[in-house]
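Please, structure for the following, as tokens.
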Amino acid sequence: MSQSPLMDMKSNALLGQSIKPETELAGTTAAEGGSVDCDNMIGSVHGLFSCGDATGTPDSFTATCKLQESTTGSGSWTDIATQTTLVLSANGSAGIIRGVRTKRYVRAVMTPAFVSGTTPKL
């Protein structure tokens, strides 16, 4: 389901949420966020990603983050070609991705990778 972003009049920015806070990542299954309708937006899009502490004693982990776009918001998602690359690899790490969308809807995607450990989660 698509979310309409909130308008921040002072900063002239549209704000929307794609992946809900405290979404649990396990194995190699990507967390695919909900679509954010950017119809009233001009300019680049930014994705703020963060991860909490890993559990289950993994030796190490990474979380590869990206933004995707779609014409309908319900399928045919493609990576935003102009985005920067973001790989998080520490407990409590965070970063921002910037890209220029060409389609109406945008979503966030975060894919974990764990090294060893017992039932690692992030």
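The two ends are 25 Å apart (CA to CA). The first strand starts at residue 6 and ends at 8.
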